[in-house]
Amino acid sequence: MPPVIDDTVFALASGAGRAAVAVLRLSGPGTAAIVRALAGALPAPRQASLRRLRHPHSAEVLDQALVLWFPGPRSYTGEDSAELHLHGGPAVIAGVAEALVAAGARPAEPGEFTRRAFVHGRLDLTAAEGIADLIAAETAAQRRQALRQAEGALATLYGGWAARITALLARQEAFIEFEDEDLPEGLDDAVAGAAAALRAEIASHLADAHRGERLREGLLVAILGAPNAGKSSLLNALAGREAAIVSARAGTTRDVVEVRLDLAGVPVTLADTAGLREAEDEIEVEGIRRARRRAEEADLVLAVFAADQAPDAGTLDWVRPGTLVVVNKRDLALAPATIGGLAPIPVSAVTGEGLNALRARLAEEATARAGLGAEATLTRPRHRAALTEAAGWLAEIAVAPLPELRAEALRAALRAIGRITGRVGVEAVLDLVFGEFCIGK
Question: Annotated binding residues for Mg(2+), as ranges?
């Protein structure tokens, strides 16, 4: 049974600031009484009704608004809920909010509406996380991934695995309890085989190169190169604005300069870094240290060379499989056929030559590293940790010497998967999950 929730909360569900319309949401057992106190009577369920809203104590008219009533359990939270569609002026919003408090409601905490939906069984934790990701989505690809998760793609997959483990546990328990009975031949071995097959499926799901997490969080691309290779000019050209200072003076870039791009639906942070060289100035030395650290953390390194200069050793050290080699200043000289064994992309940040080819290649690399398929993908480290634990317990079944130990391993695997969806042992992660939400959702 869900815990008893005896208070009623409200929050602004639309954006802050002056607007044509502002939406205040209410949810909780006192919603009906509060709506009556402000609007005079409840409208028909799920039908918008134009009402004058009055303060419950002074009877002052606060606004003329559309009122919608959603009786539980057929509401987003599973409780009695309502929406007040107000005129979007700050004074109107503040006046109605004060009236709601006077009528017995309290302001909601971040994520409280969705948390109540989880408590009342309207969605599981993966769907709740998908809703949070949908609100935060910056690109179309992020939106698609978040929507799949919010609609239950991960819940269906993990729920299916949990159901299979439950069935295996039942068979294993039958083998333990009725060992002397006339059970099917090889029941114990069949359980071990099915557990091994399931473990292989989970391992395949985990071996995704973190694509879903990369899409959710965005990729980091670090631009490395010697001073005056044209890194800052290249950043500005790709960003379409002057994000970094460009100067003929070597060592102008001392700290990391970042811009955010949308490449084929994948959010990408492009980081311009200090030029790699032997430096004595302590500020430049620190900038070079940060450049190397950013390259180590990056999903993709863009090694930039100047066409009119010999390839420098500091940048060559970063030319390895997976690096994208770019030769800038193509307007001044021809690009070499290969650098460090890789074919470079010749560009000119000044004339724009080769920039479209570079953008296309960056988009290609971004989509290859991010989960853009139709399948459900891992999106959070906590999912990965729980599934890794479940796979470990399933592996124990093959080596466990006693049927009782195999049954315990199945129970542990089931608990691990249950923590992802919120079926078992989730109190420790609830605040973490719902703390990501904005107020009003």
Answer: 232, 253
CB 161 within 8 A of CB 198: yes
Lowest mean pLDDT among 24-28, 193-197, 271-275: 271-275
Which segments are annotated as binding site for GTP?
228-233, 247-253, 272-275
Which residues fall in the annotated binding site? 25, 83, 122, 228-233, 247-253, 272-275, 441
The pLDDT of 205-214, averaged and rounded, is 88
Q: Is 67 helix (H, G, I), strand (E, B) or coil?
A: strand
Instruction: Enumerate the known binding-site residues for (6S)-5-formyl-5,6,7,8-tetrahydrofolate.
Output: 25, 83, 122, 441
Total residues found in the chain within this entry? 441
9-108: CATH, from 3.40.50.1100, 3.40.50.300, 3.40.50.150, 3.30.1360.120: 3.30.1360.120
- Answer for the pair 415, 425: CB distance below 8 angstroms, yes or no: yes
Residue 81 pLDDT: 97
C-beta of residue 281 within 8 angstroms of C-beta of residue 251: yes
Query: How is domain 126-210+377-434 classified at the architecture level of CATH?
Result: Up-down Bundle (1.20)
Task: Report phi then psi at 149, rounded to 5.
Answer: -70, -40
Could you tell me the pTM of the whole model? Answer: 0.78
Mean pLDDT for the stretch of residues 46-70: 96
Question: CA nearest 398: which of 171, 201, 195, 203?
Answer: 195
Give me the phi and psi of 102, to 5 degrees please.
-60, -30
> Which residues partner with 259 through β-bridges?
270
Q: In what order do the strands lie in the sheet with 300-306?
A: 257-263, 266-272, 219-225, 300-306, 324-328, 345-346
Give counts: helices (H), strands (E), the chain: 15, 12
For residues 306 and 226, what is the distance between their CA atoms, to the nearest angstrom? 8
Q: Is 346 exposed, middle or buried (0-12, 13-18, 19+ CB in 10 A)?
A: buried
Ramachandran region, residue 40 (left: φ > 0; alpha: ψ -120 to 50; beta: rest): left
User: How much is the pLDDT for 247?
Assistant: 46
- Domain ranges across the chain: 9-108, 126-210+377-434, 219-369
Q: Which two tokens stand for residue 304?
A: 């930039």
